[in-house]
Amino acid sequence: MAAAVVDSAMEVVPALVEEAAPEAAGLSCLVNLPGEVLEYILCSGSLTAADIGRVSSTCRRLRELCQGSGKVWKEQFRVRWPSLMKHYSPTDYVNWLEEYKVRQKAGLEARKIVASFSKRFFSEHVPCNGFSDIENLEGPEIFFEDELVCILNMEGRKALTWKYYAKKILYYLRQQKILNNLKAFLQQPDDYESYLEGAVYIDQYCNPLSDISLKDIQAQIDSIVELVCKTLRGINSRHPSLAFKAGESSMIMEIELQSQVLDAMNHVLYDQLKFKGNRMDYYNALNLYMHQVLIRRTGIPISMSLLYLTIARQLGVPLEPVNFPSHFLLRWCQGAEGTTLDIFDYIYIDAFGKGKQLTVKECEYLIGQHVTAALYGVVNVKKVLQRMVGNLLSLGKREGIDQSYQLLRDSLDLYLAMYPDQVQLLLLQARLYFHLGIWPEKAGDAPFGQQKALSALPDRV
């Protein structure tokens, strides 16, 4: 992962003061022990990195045992920075001594920058260019972030100012990385339909200090899929979905077999796991974050639909998202493949309403109005994410307790990442920053007399 940044191992693992050389008989007795025993002793946890550096300089046998890619330095790295181990594959070749040196250097750089923030911005907000030093750092960003997390996790009320700026820097770093990933994701062709991946980017951007990953969320969904398969096996032990391997994108064409999958899904999601639409706390941003939907087992129509859609597609049912006004839906095709279809050839699924299957007329009853056929059409990933972020914008405008307007700021960033030419939103963002006294250089010449740019946006969910 990391390149050699420091010339010598002794720059990071300096030898302590010279000590008397061990007696020849004692050293001979030690090095004659089996390698596994020596390795066990050196990995026991009682020796520091400095100790390992001194041990490795005593003789050839111990130097070979303490080579950079061996278990001894891996254990030193693991004990010192356990949270980083998840970023390494067991099959990768890693020079752990070099990793140790680079991580140590990144930690020193991180503390130096946090200390400089404390001195420079103690009485003012961090300006736009205040983060320029961070953007020019050498070495893996994950090491720098890890040190910031270590600062945040310091016990008690120590170094509160350091923690304050470490949090700001970590927030900025992660959001910049997530925003870049989202922009790259949005460049995918229209037929790239990873709705869950896009939703996770939104979740991560609004919760940059939380440990949220697509891999973890997909693992939780996979566990739900396993429960559905168990139920499906009781319905039809020879169902083709039971033979699907992880990551397969096969689709089942027979309507009856698709219906069996949906029946099993509804039983697991709503009866067994007790997922439900959040009617009691509908206007809560947590309802839009996929990791929270899985934890709390509740959400609003769009987030519940994305969960339902993801599970159905993994099991071979080709559901599609429908950007229905006021209530996001899924559609399930009932017509023959290759024929001309209209809106009446679909059943519409309300994941918010426990997977209820609706006709066109029942969809109109659901929202209390007649709508045109165009609103029953399928939408692509970008439109789905636009609606999710639009919901967050609406919720951000409702903020009353959090005077930092963090949700509004985050949702504006996300919306402008997808649609950078939205002039009204750019003006709103400038006025918001000016109002908060944050990054006034972003405010530019925004006209203050204009009406609020988002007042006309519908509160669609």
UniProtKB/TrEMBL annotation:
Residues 217-389 form the Protein SirB1 N-terminal domain. Residues 31-77 form the F-box domain. CDD domains: F-box_FBXO21. Gene3D superfamilies: 1.20.1280.50. It comes from Bos mutus grunniens. This is F-box protein 21. InterPro entries: F-box-like_dom_sf, F-box_dom, SirB1_N. The gene is FBXO21.
